[in-house]
Protein backbone atom coordinates (compact mmCIF):
# COMPACT_ATOMS: atom_id res chain seq x y z
CA UNK A 1 0.00 0.00 0.00
CA UNK A 2 1.56 3.26 -1.20
CA UNK A 3 0.72 6.38 0.77
CA UNK A 4 0.40 9.41 -1.51
CA UNK A 5 -0.73 13.03 -1.06
CA UNK A 6 -4.23 12.16 -2.18
CA UNK A 7 -4.65 9.56 0.57
CA UNK A 8 -3.29 11.94 3.22
CA UNK A 9 -5.73 14.63 2.05
CA UNK A 10 -8.65 12.23 2.03
CA UNK A 11 -7.90 10.93 5.56
CA UNK A 12 -7.36 14.48 6.86
CA UNK A 13 -10.77 15.48 5.55
CA UNK A 14 -12.44 12.46 7.12
CA UNK A 15 -10.68 13.06 10.45
CA UNK A 16 -11.37 16.82 10.39
CA UNK A 17 -7.68 17.65 10.57
CA UNK A 18 -5.57 19.99 8.46
CA UNK A 19 -1.83 19.95 7.98
CA UNK A 20 0.47 22.75 6.93
CA UNK A 21 2.37 22.07 3.68
CA UNK A 22 5.64 21.70 5.63
CA UNK A 23 4.07 19.06 7.94
CA UNK A 24 2.70 16.93 5.14
CA UNK A 25 5.87 15.16 4.08
CA UNK A 26 6.48 13.99 7.67
CA UNK A 27 2.90 12.79 8.03
CA UNK A 28 3.16 10.90 4.75
CA UNK A 29 6.39 9.19 5.83
CA UNK A 30 5.01 8.25 9.25
CA UNK A 31 1.75 6.96 7.82
CA UNK A 32 3.64 4.91 5.24
CA UNK A 33 5.76 3.35 7.99
CA UNK A 34 2.75 2.61 10.19
CA UNK A 35 0.69 1.09 7.37
CA UNK A 36 3.57 -1.10 6.20
CA UNK A 37 3.95 -2.21 9.81
CA UNK A 38 0.31 -3.29 10.25
CA UNK A 39 0.35 -5.07 6.89
CA UNK A 40 2.27 -7.83 8.65
CA UNK A 41 -1.16 -9.21 9.59
CA UNK A 42 -1.63 -10.30 5.96
CA UNK A 43 0.84 -13.11 6.62
CA UNK A 44 -1.73 -14.83 8.85
CA UNK A 45 -4.43 -17.09 7.47
CA UNK A 46 -7.67 -16.12 9.18
CA UNK A 47 -10.07 -17.99 6.91
CA UNK A 48 -13.17 -19.02 8.84
CA UNK A 49 -12.25 -17.03 11.96
CA UNK A 50 -15.07 -14.92 13.41
CA UNK A 51 -13.96 -11.38 14.23
CA UNK A 52 -13.95 -10.66 17.96
CA UNK A 53 -16.24 -7.69 18.59
CA UNK A 54 -16.86 -7.58 22.35
CA UNK A 55 -14.42 -8.00 25.21
CA UNK A 56 -17.00 -8.36 27.95
CA UNK A 57 -18.82 -11.64 28.59
CA UNK A 58 -21.60 -9.81 30.36
CA UNK A 59 -24.91 -9.83 28.48
CA UNK A 60 -27.88 -7.50 29.01
CA UNK A 61 -26.54 -5.71 32.06
CA UNK A 62 -29.49 -3.48 32.82
CA UNK A 63 -30.60 -1.36 35.75
CA UNK A 64 -33.89 0.12 36.83
CA UNK A 65 -35.09 2.85 34.49
CA UNK A 66 -34.38 5.85 36.70
CA UNK A 67 -32.69 9.12 35.86
CA UNK A 68 -29.11 8.64 37.05
CA UNK A 69 -25.64 9.66 35.95
CA UNK A 70 -27.13 12.71 34.31
CA UNK A 71 -26.10 16.35 34.49
CA UNK A 72 -28.10 19.58 34.46
CA UNK A 73 -28.22 21.89 31.46
CA UNK A 74 -26.06 24.41 33.34
CA UNK A 75 -23.44 21.73 33.97
CA UNK A 76 -23.65 20.62 30.37
CA UNK A 77 -22.94 24.15 29.18
CA UNK A 78 -20.29 24.88 31.80
CA UNK A 79 -17.31 23.99 29.62
CA UNK A 80 -18.67 25.29 26.31
CA UNK A 81 -16.32 27.81 24.68
CA UNK A 82 -19.23 29.73 23.11
CA UNK A 83 -22.82 29.56 24.31
CA UNK A 84 -25.81 31.52 25.48
CA UNK A 85 -27.85 30.49 28.52
CA UNK A 86 -29.45 27.55 26.74
CA UNK A 87 -27.46 26.51 23.69
CA UNK A 88 -24.01 25.77 22.31
CA UNK A 89 -23.15 28.24 19.59
CA UNK A 90 -21.58 27.37 16.23
CA UNK A 91 -20.92 29.36 13.04
CA UNK A 92 -23.99 29.91 10.92
CA UNK A 93 -24.77 26.70 9.04
CA UNK A 94 -27.76 27.72 6.89
CA UNK A 95 -27.27 30.88 4.85
CA UNK A 96 -29.93 32.68 2.89
CA UNK B 1 -2.95 4.93 60.77
CA UNK B 2 -1.22 3.58 63.87
CA UNK B 3 -2.04 6.48 66.15
CA UNK B 4 1.47 7.89 65.73
CA UNK B 5 0.55 10.51 63.20
CA UNK B 6 -2.40 12.38 61.73
CA UNK B 7 -3.83 12.75 58.25
CA UNK B 8 -2.83 16.42 58.31
CA UNK B 9 0.77 15.54 59.10
CA UNK B 10 0.76 12.90 56.35
CA UNK B 11 -0.54 15.40 53.79
CA UNK B 12 2.08 17.96 54.88
CA UNK B 13 4.80 15.35 54.47
CA UNK B 14 3.71 14.53 50.91
CA UNK B 15 3.21 18.20 49.97
CA UNK B 16 6.82 18.85 51.04
CA UNK B 17 8.00 15.95 48.90
CA UNK B 18 5.99 17.23 45.94
CA UNK B 19 7.45 20.69 46.21
CA UNK B 20 11.00 19.33 46.61
CA UNK B 21 10.58 17.25 43.43
CA UNK B 22 8.63 19.73 41.30
CA UNK B 23 11.35 19.65 38.59
CA UNK B 24 10.32 16.07 37.79
CA UNK B 25 7.05 17.53 36.39
CA UNK B 26 4.97 14.62 37.67
CA UNK B 27 1.97 16.78 38.64
CA UNK B 28 -0.22 19.03 36.54
CA UNK B 29 -2.02 20.33 39.60
CA UNK B 30 -1.66 19.83 43.34
CA UNK B 31 -4.63 20.41 45.66
CA UNK B 32 -2.73 21.75 48.69
CA UNK B 33 -5.56 23.55 50.47
CA UNK B 34 -8.23 20.99 49.71
CA UNK B 35 -6.03 18.02 50.73
CA UNK B 36 -5.23 19.67 54.07
CA UNK B 37 -8.91 20.46 54.67
CA UNK B 38 -9.95 16.90 53.86
CA UNK B 39 -7.21 15.58 56.14
CA UNK B 40 -8.34 17.80 59.01
CA UNK B 41 -11.90 16.57 58.56
CA UNK B 42 -10.76 12.94 58.56
CA UNK B 43 -8.70 13.52 61.73
CA UNK B 44 -11.74 15.01 63.42
CA UNK B 45 -13.97 12.12 62.39
CA UNK B 46 -11.42 9.59 63.63
CA UNK B 47 -11.08 11.32 67.00
CA UNK B 48 -14.83 11.31 67.39
CA UNK B 49 -14.71 7.54 67.06
CA UNK B 50 -16.30 7.13 63.61
CA UNK B 51 -15.50 3.83 61.93
CA UNK B 52 -12.59 4.20 59.53
CA UNK B 53 -12.83 3.90 55.77
CA UNK B 54 -10.64 1.25 54.19
CA UNK B 55 -8.39 3.94 52.69
CA UNK B 56 -8.58 6.33 55.64
CA UNK B 57 -5.82 8.91 55.13
CA UNK B 58 -4.24 7.18 52.14
CA UNK B 59 -2.67 9.88 49.93
CA UNK B 60 -3.54 9.20 46.31
CA UNK B 61 -2.66 10.87 43.01
CA UNK B 62 -4.76 10.38 39.90
CA UNK B 63 -3.69 10.43 36.28
CA UNK B 64 -5.01 13.35 34.27
CA UNK B 65 -7.49 11.14 32.40
CA UNK B 66 -9.70 10.29 35.40
CA UNK B 67 -12.57 12.66 36.17
CA UNK B 68 -12.91 14.29 39.59
CA UNK B 69 -15.96 16.51 39.95
CA UNK B 70 -15.24 20.27 40.10
CA UNK B 71 -11.57 19.65 39.31
CA UNK B 72 -9.80 20.10 36.01
CA UNK B 73 -8.96 17.14 33.80
CA UNK B 74 -7.09 17.67 30.53
CA UNK B 75 -5.73 14.30 29.29
CA UNK B 76 -2.45 16.28 29.16
CA UNK B 77 -3.82 17.91 26.00
CA UNK B 78 -4.26 21.52 24.90
CA UNK B 79 -7.66 20.49 23.60
CA UNK B 80 -8.95 20.08 27.18
CA UNK B 81 -6.76 22.69 28.84
CA UNK B 82 -9.54 24.44 30.75
CA UNK B 83 -11.99 21.58 31.10
CA UNK B 84 -13.62 21.08 34.51
CA UNK B 85 -15.20 17.71 35.33
CA UNK B 86 -18.91 17.93 35.99
CA UNK B 87 -19.00 14.44 37.48
CA UNK B 88 -16.53 12.03 39.08
CA UNK B 89 -15.31 8.72 37.75
CA UNK B 90 -16.69 5.77 39.71
CA UNK B 91 -13.11 4.95 40.77
CA UNK B 92 -12.68 8.50 42.13
CA UNK B 93 -15.98 8.35 44.02
CA UNK B 94 -15.03 5.04 45.60
CA UNK B 95 -11.61 6.30 46.69
CA UNK B 96 -13.21 9.29 48.37
CA UNK B 97 -16.03 7.26 49.93
CA UNK B 98 -13.39 5.11 51.63
CA UNK B 99 -11.61 8.22 52.93
CA UNK B 100 -8.62 8.44 50.61
CA UNK B 101 -7.16 11.93 50.12
CA UNK B 102 -6.63 12.93 46.48
CA UNK B 103 -3.61 15.21 46.50
CA UNK B 104 -3.41 16.13 42.81
CA UNK B 105 -3.64 15.14 39.16
CA UNK B 106 -0.69 13.67 37.36
CA UNK B 107 1.05 14.37 34.07
CA UNK B 108 0.87 11.73 31.32
CA UNK B 109 1.14 11.31 27.57
CA UNK B 110 -1.58 13.18 25.70
CA UNK B 111 -4.76 11.07 25.73
CA UNK B 112 -2.64 8.25 27.21
CA UNK B 113 -0.97 7.78 23.81
CA UNK B 114 2.72 7.13 24.29
CA UNK B 115 5.22 5.20 26.30
CA UNK B 116 7.71 7.84 27.44
CA UNK B 117 5.58 10.71 28.75
CA UNK B 118 7.22 12.92 26.11
CA UNK B 119 3.86 13.45 24.38
CA UNK B 120 2.35 15.60 27.14
CA UNK B 121 1.31 19.11 26.11
CA UNK B 122 2.68 20.16 29.51
CA UNK B 123 6.24 18.88 29.09
CA UNK B 124 7.96 15.57 29.77
CA UNK B 125 8.16 13.88 33.16
CA UNK B 126 11.60 12.91 34.44
CA UNK B 127 12.56 9.57 35.98
CA UNK B 128 13.72 10.16 39.58
CA UNK B 129 16.39 7.44 39.33
CA UNK B 130 18.09 9.25 36.41
CA UNK B 131 16.55 12.58 35.51
CA UNK B 132 17.90 12.42 31.94
CA UNK B 133 15.75 9.36 31.37
CA UNK B 134 12.06 8.93 30.63
CA UNK B 135 9.79 7.51 33.33
CA UNK B 136 7.84 5.49 30.76
CA UNK B 137 4.29 6.19 29.85
CA UNK B 138 1.67 6.94 29.38
CA UNK B 139 1.13 7.01 33.18
CA UNK B 140 4.61 8.51 33.69
CA UNK B 141 3.63 11.15 36.26
CA UNK B 142 1.70 8.54 38.24
CA UNK B 143 4.73 6.23 38.35
CA UNK B 144 7.22 8.94 39.32
CA UNK B 145 4.87 10.26 42.02
CA UNK B 146 4.99 6.86 43.75
CA UNK B 147 8.67 6.26 42.94
CA UNK B 148 9.76 9.59 44.46
CA UNK B 149 7.49 9.29 47.51
CA UNK B 150 5.13 12.10 46.48
CA UNK B 151 2.02 10.00 47.18
CA UNK B 152 1.31 6.52 48.50
CA UNK B 153 -0.64 5.18 45.53
CA UNK B 154 -1.52 6.39 42.03
CA UNK B 155 -4.36 5.53 39.72
CA UNK B 156 -3.25 5.32 36.10
CA UNK B 157 -4.82 3.90 32.98
CA UNK B 158 -3.52 1.03 30.88
CA UNK B 159 -4.59 0.57 27.25
CA UNK B 160 -1.46 -1.26 26.07
CA UNK B 161 0.93 -1.17 29.03
CA UNK B 162 0.58 2.41 30.25
CA UNK B 163 0.62 1.38 33.92
CA UNK B 164 2.99 -1.61 33.78
CA UNK B 165 5.68 -0.07 31.58
CA UNK B 166 6.23 3.11 33.64
CA UNK B 167 6.10 0.99 36.81
CA UNK B 168 8.89 -1.11 35.27
CA UNK B 169 10.98 1.97 34.33
CA UNK B 170 10.53 3.46 37.81
CA UNK B 171 11.07 0.33 39.91
CA UNK B 172 7.59 0.06 41.43
CA UNK B 173 4.56 -2.25 41.19
CA UNK B 174 2.00 -1.54 38.45
CA UNK B 175 -1.12 -3.58 37.83
CA UNK B 176 -3.67 -3.64 35.05
CA UNK B 177 -6.70 -5.65 36.18
CA UNK B 178 -8.87 -7.71 33.79
CA UNK B 179 -10.96 -5.86 31.26
CA UNK B 180 -14.22 -5.16 33.09
CA UNK B 181 -12.74 -5.25 36.57
CA UNK B 182 -12.88 -1.51 37.31
CA UNK B 183 -15.60 0.74 35.92
CA UNK B 184 -14.47 2.99 33.06
CA UNK B 185 -17.15 5.55 33.89
CA UNK B 186 -15.34 8.88 34.07
CA UNK B 187 -12.15 7.59 32.45
CA UNK B 188 -11.42 9.66 29.33
CA UNK B 189 -11.72 7.14 26.50
CA UNK B 190 -8.78 6.21 24.29
CA UNK B 191 -9.63 2.69 23.04
CA UNK B 192 -12.71 1.47 24.83
CA UNK B 193 -12.26 -2.27 24.35
CA UNK B 194 -8.73 -2.03 25.80
CA UNK B 195 -8.85 0.72 28.45
CA UNK B 196 -8.63 -0.18 32.13
CA UNK B 197 -7.80 1.88 35.17
CA UNK B 198 -4.68 0.47 36.81
CA UNK B 199 -2.91 0.90 40.15
CA UNK B 200 0.68 1.94 40.88
CA UNK B 201 2.19 1.43 44.34
CA UNK B 202 5.35 0.43 46.17
CA UNK B 203 4.02 -3.00 47.12
CA UNK B 204 1.44 -5.62 46.20
CA UNK B 205 -0.62 -5.21 49.40
CA UNK B 206 -1.30 -1.55 48.61
CA UNK B 207 -2.40 -2.48 45.09
CA UNK B 208 -4.76 -5.10 46.48
CA UNK B 209 -6.27 -2.73 49.03
CA UNK B 210 -7.04 -0.10 46.40
CA UNK B 211 -8.33 -2.71 43.93
CA UNK B 212 -10.74 -4.04 46.56
CA UNK B 213 -12.14 -0.54 47.01
CA UNK B 214 -12.51 0.56 43.39
CA UNK B 215 -13.31 -2.68 41.49
CA UNK B 216 -16.74 -4.18 41.00
CA UNK B 217 -20.11 -3.74 39.34
CA UNK B 218 -21.20 -0.22 38.51
CA UNK B 219 -24.53 1.07 37.22
CA UNK B 220 -22.72 3.35 34.78
CA UNK B 221 -20.54 0.81 32.94
CA UNK B 222 -22.29 -2.29 31.61
CA UNK B 223 -18.99 -3.95 30.63
CA UNK B 224 -17.95 -4.41 34.26
CA UNK B 225 -18.17 -8.00 35.41
CA UNK B 226 -21.06 -8.57 37.77
CA UNK B 227 -19.52 -11.23 39.99
CA UNK B 228 -16.45 -10.58 42.09
CA UNK B 229 -13.16 -12.29 41.30
CA UNK B 230 -13.03 -15.60 43.19
CA UNK B 231 -10.43 -16.21 45.84
CA UNK B 232 -8.02 -18.94 44.79
CA UNK B 233 -7.17 -21.93 46.95
CA UNK B 234 -3.50 -21.87 47.94
CA UNK B 235 -1.31 -24.55 46.48
CA UNK B 236 2.20 -25.66 47.35
CA UNK B 237 3.46 -25.40 43.83
CA UNK B 238 2.25 -23.61 40.74
CA UNK B 239 2.48 -24.07 37.02
CA UNK B 240 4.02 -21.16 35.13
CA UNK B 241 4.82 -20.83 31.46
CA UNK B 242 6.73 -18.36 29.37
CA UNK B 243 6.84 -17.72 25.63
CA UNK B 244 10.07 -19.22 24.39
CA UNK B 245 10.37 -16.77 21.47
CA UNK B 246 9.70 -13.81 23.78
CA UNK B 247 12.76 -14.54 25.90
CA UNK B 248 14.85 -15.12 22.77
CA UNK B 249 13.47 -12.08 20.91
CA UNK B 250 16.05 -9.97 19.04
CA UNK B 251 14.75 -6.74 20.62
CA UNK B 252 15.16 -7.98 24.21
CA UNK B 253 18.05 -6.57 26.26
CA UNK B 254 20.37 -9.52 27.09
CA UNK B 255 20.53 -8.57 30.79
CA UNK B 256 16.73 -8.74 31.07
CA UNK B 257 16.69 -12.11 29.32
CA UNK B 258 19.42 -13.51 31.57
CA UNK B 259 17.90 -12.26 34.82
CA UNK B 260 14.50 -13.69 33.95
CA UNK B 261 15.99 -17.03 32.95
CA UNK B 262 17.91 -17.09 36.22
CA UNK B 263 14.74 -16.36 38.13
CA UNK B 264 12.92 -19.14 36.30
CA UNK B 265 15.62 -21.53 37.54
CA UNK B 266 15.01 -20.31 41.05
CA UNK B 267 11.28 -20.95 40.70
CA UNK B 268 11.80 -24.49 39.48
CA UNK B 269 14.31 -24.99 42.29
CA UNK B 270 11.49 -24.20 44.71
CA UNK B 271 9.33 -26.96 43.25
CA UNK B 272 7.26 -24.91 40.82
CA UNK B 273 6.85 -25.92 37.23
CA UNK B 274 8.02 -23.42 34.62
CA UNK B 275 7.73 -24.48 31.00
CA UNK B 276 8.24 -22.82 27.64
CA UNK B 277 5.27 -22.67 25.30
CA UNK B 278 5.39 -21.92 21.60
CA UNK B 279 3.62 -18.65 20.86
CA UNK B 280 3.82 -18.16 17.12
CA UNK B 281 1.55 -15.09 17.17
CA UNK B 282 4.10 -12.99 19.09
CA UNK B 283 5.13 -10.79 16.17
CA UNK B 284 1.50 -10.10 15.25
CA UNK B 285 0.33 -8.71 18.56
CA UNK B 286 1.71 -5.18 18.16
CA UNK B 287 0.30 -4.67 14.63
CA UNK B 288 -3.09 -6.01 15.79
CA UNK B 289 -3.01 -3.69 18.76
CA UNK B 290 -2.26 -0.61 16.65
CA UNK B 291 -5.00 -1.33 14.11
CA UNK B 292 -7.67 -1.76 16.75
CA UNK B 293 -6.65 0.97 19.22
CA UNK B 294 -6.16 3.66 16.58
CA UNK B 295 -9.53 2.77 15.07
CA UNK B 296 -11.23 3.12 18.44
CA UNK B 297 -9.27 6.29 19.17
CA UNK B 298 -10.26 7.95 15.90
CA UNK B 299 -13.87 7.32 16.83
CA UNK B 300 -13.57 8.29 20.52
CA UNK B 301 -11.64 11.49 19.80
CA UNK B 302 -14.16 12.74 17.25
CA UNK B 303 -15.97 14.36 20.19
CA UNK B 304 -13.31 17.09 20.47
CA UNK B 305 -14.86 19.55 18.08
CA UNK B 306 -14.58 22.92 19.86
CA UNK B 307 -18.35 23.13 20.38
CA UNK B 308 -19.38 21.32 23.56
CA UNK B 309 -16.20 21.79 25.53
CA UNK B 310 -12.47 22.29 25.24
CA UNK B 311 -10.25 24.39 23.00
CA UNK B 312 -11.87 26.26 20.10
CA UNK B 313 -10.18 28.11 17.26
CA UNK B 314 -11.21 31.74 17.56
CA UNK B 315 -11.29 32.78 13.89
CA UNK B 316 -14.76 34.32 13.38
CA UNK B 317 -14.61 33.88 9.60
CA UNK B 318 -14.63 30.07 9.89
CA UNK B 319 -17.53 28.00 8.70
CA UNK B 320 -18.48 24.98 10.83
CA UNK B 321 -16.20 22.56 9.02
CA UNK B 322 -13.22 24.91 9.24
CA UNK B 323 -13.96 25.41 12.90
CA UNK B 324 -13.74 21.65 13.48
CA UNK B 325 -10.57 21.26 11.43
CA UNK B 326 -8.67 24.18 12.90
CA UNK B 327 -9.75 23.43 16.45
CA UNK B 328 -8.60 19.83 16.19
CA UNK B 329 -5.39 20.62 14.30
CA UNK B 330 -4.35 23.20 16.90
CA UNK B 331 -5.65 21.30 19.92
CA UNK B 332 -4.12 17.86 19.36
CA UNK B 333 -0.41 17.05 19.49
CA UNK B 334 1.45 15.17 16.72
CA UNK B 335 1.21 11.63 18.15
CA UNK B 336 -2.54 11.95 18.70
CA UNK B 337 -3.00 13.20 15.12
CA UNK B 338 -0.89 10.34 13.74
CA UNK B 339 -3.03 7.79 15.55
CA UNK B 340 -6.29 9.44 14.50
CA UNK B 341 -5.13 9.32 10.87
CA UNK B 342 -4.10 5.67 11.05
CA UNK B 343 -7.39 4.81 12.76
CA UNK B 344 -9.32 6.73 10.12
CA UNK B 345 -7.44 4.80 7.45
CA UNK B 346 -8.20 1.32 8.85
CA UNK B 347 -11.88 2.22 9.23
CA UNK B 348 -12.31 3.92 5.85
CA UNK B 349 -14.29 2.45 2.96
CA UNK B 350 -12.20 0.05 0.93
CA UNK B 351 -9.73 -0.70 3.75
CA UNK B 352 -12.08 -1.69 6.59
CA UNK B 353 -12.14 -5.46 5.93
CA UNK B 354 -8.48 -5.75 4.97
CA UNK B 355 -7.21 -4.02 8.11
CA UNK B 356 -9.86 -3.59 10.82
CA UNK B 357 -11.82 -6.83 10.43
CA UNK B 358 -8.56 -8.70 9.87
CA UNK B 359 -7.22 -7.43 13.19
CA UNK B 360 -10.46 -8.40 14.96
CA UNK B 361 -9.98 -11.91 13.62
CA UNK B 362 -6.40 -12.05 14.87
CA UNK B 363 -7.69 -10.85 18.24
CA UNK B 364 -9.97 -13.90 18.30
CA UNK B 365 -7.00 -16.18 17.54
CA UNK B 366 -5.10 -14.58 20.41
CA UNK B 367 -7.99 -15.07 22.87
CA UNK B 368 -8.44 -18.72 21.83
CA UNK B 369 -4.73 -19.41 22.23
CA UNK B 370 -4.75 -17.71 25.65
CA UNK B 371 -7.66 -19.82 26.90
CA UNK B 372 -5.73 -22.96 25.93
CA UNK B 373 -2.64 -21.75 27.80
CA UNK B 374 -4.60 -21.20 31.00
CA UNK B 375 -6.11 -24.68 30.83
CA UNK B 376 -2.61 -25.88 31.64
CA UNK B 377 -0.94 -23.07 33.56
CA UNK B 378 -1.66 -20.77 36.50
CA UNK B 379 0.26 -17.83 35.11
CA UNK B 380 2.40 -16.54 32.25
CA UNK B 381 5.81 -14.99 32.88
CA UNK B 382 7.13 -12.36 30.46
CA UNK B 383 9.42 -9.35 30.57
CA UNK B 384 7.49 -6.09 30.96
CA UNK B 385 9.67 -4.21 28.48
CA UNK B 386 12.46 -5.04 26.02
CA UNK B 387 14.87 -2.44 27.49
CA UNK B 388 15.08 -0.37 30.69
CA UNK B 389 14.33 3.39 30.73
CA UNK B 390 15.94 5.24 27.82
CA UNK B 391 17.04 8.87 27.56
CA UNK B 392 14.60 11.70 26.94
CA UNK B 393 14.62 12.52 23.21
CA UNK B 394 16.37 9.25 22.30
CA UNK B 395 13.52 7.54 20.45
CA UNK B 396 11.78 9.28 17.57
CA UNK B 397 10.58 6.69 15.07
CA UNK B 398 6.89 5.90 15.74
CA UNK B 399 7.17 2.25 14.68
CA UNK B 400 10.27 1.69 16.83
CA UNK B 401 8.33 3.11 19.79
CA UNK B 402 5.32 0.88 18.98
CA UNK B 403 7.52 -2.23 18.94
CA UNK B 404 8.66 -1.63 22.51
CA UNK B 405 5.08 -2.45 23.58
CA UNK B 406 5.53 -6.06 22.45
CA UNK B 407 5.21 -7.62 25.93
CA UNK B 408 2.47 -5.44 27.39
CA UNK B 409 -0.22 -5.05 24.70
CA UNK B 410 -0.98 -8.77 24.76
CA UNK B 411 -2.85 -8.56 28.10
CA UNK B 412 -5.07 -5.74 26.78
CA UNK B 413 -5.76 -7.56 23.52
CA UNK B 414 -7.07 -10.61 25.38
CA UNK B 415 -8.48 -8.84 28.46
CA UNK B 416 -6.44 -10.65 31.13
CA UNK B 417 -4.94 -9.09 34.28
CA UNK B 418 -1.21 -8.37 34.31
CA UNK B 419 1.25 -6.90 36.78
CA UNK B 420 4.82 -5.64 36.60
CA UNK B 421 6.91 -6.54 39.66
CA UNK B 422 10.14 -4.61 40.40
CA UNK B 423 12.49 -7.55 40.83
CA UNK B 424 15.70 -6.56 39.02
CA UNK B 425 18.31 -3.89 38.32
CA UNK B 426 20.91 -3.71 35.57
CA UNK B 427 24.59 -2.75 36.01
CA UNK B 428 23.71 0.96 35.64
CA UNK B 429 21.29 0.66 38.56
CA UNK B 430 18.25 0.99 36.30
CA UNK B 431 15.32 -1.11 37.48
CA UNK B 432 13.34 -3.53 35.35
CA UNK B 433 10.45 -5.74 36.15
CA UNK B 434 9.00 -9.16 35.65
CA UNK B 435 5.54 -9.30 34.18
CA UNK B 436 3.08 -11.85 35.44
CA UNK B 437 -0.34 -12.56 33.93
CA UNK B 438 -3.20 -14.79 35.01
CA UNK B 439 -6.43 -15.88 33.36
CA UNK B 440 -9.27 -13.41 33.02
CA UNK B 441 -11.00 -12.31 36.23
CA UNK B 442 -8.35 -13.95 38.38
CA UNK B 443 -6.66 -10.83 39.70
CA UNK B 444 -6.68 -12.05 43.29
CA UNK B 445 -4.80 -15.14 42.20
CA UNK B 446 -2.39 -12.90 40.29
CA UNK B 447 -1.77 -10.80 43.39
CA UNK B 448 -1.09 -13.79 45.63
CA UNK B 449 1.32 -15.23 43.06
CA UNK B 450 2.98 -11.80 42.86
CA UNK B 451 3.69 -11.88 46.57
CA UNK B 452 5.10 -15.36 46.26
CA UNK B 453 7.51 -14.24 43.52
CA UNK B 454 8.62 -11.13 45.41
CA UNK B 455 9.27 -13.17 48.54
CA UNK B 456 11.24 -15.70 46.55
CA UNK B 457 13.33 -12.99 44.84
CA UNK B 458 14.23 -11.15 48.03
CA UNK B 459 14.34 -14.00 50.54
CA UNK B 460 18.04 -14.55 49.73
CA UNK B 461 17.45 -18.17 48.85
Which descriptors would you attach to this protein?
heterodimer; A: mainly alpha; Histone, subunit A; 34% helix; B: 461 residues; Amidase signature (AS) enzymes; 11-stranded mixed beta sheet; 15 helices; 11 strands; Aspartyl/glutamyl-tRNA(Asn/Gln) amidotransferase subunit C (chain A)
Describe the structure.
The complex is a heterodimer of chains A (96) and B (461). Chain A has 96 residues and is mainly alpha-helical. Chain A has a domain at 5-42: Histone, subunit A (Orthogonal Bundle). Chain A is built from 3 helices and no strands. Chain A has helices at residues 5-14, 21-38, 73-77. The radius of gyration of chain A is 23 Å and the shape is flat. The longest helix of chain B has 25 residues, at 352-376. Chain B has 15 helices and 11 strands. Chain B is globular and about 70 Å long. In chain B, a hairpin with a 5-residue loop joins β10 (418-425) and β11 (431-437). In chain B, strands 1-3-2-4-6-5-10-11-9-7-8 form an 11-stranded mixed β-sheet, sandwiched between helices. The mean pLDDT of chain B is 96. In chain B, 39% of the residues lie in helices and 13% in strands. With 461 residues, chain B is of the alpha/beta class. Chain B has helices spanning 7-20, 32-47, 90-97, 140-147, 164-170, 204-214, 244-247, 254-269, 285-300, 320-331, 334-347, 352-376, 398-403, 409-414, 443-458, and strands spanning 27-30, 59-63, 101-106, 153-158, 173-176, 196-201, 239-243, 273-277, 379-383, 418-425, 431-437. Chain B has a domain at 7-214: Amidase signature (AS) enzymes (Alpha-Beta Complex). The chains are: A mainly alpha (96), B alpha/beta (461). At the A-B interface, α1 and α2 of A face α9, α10, α11, α12 and α13 of B.
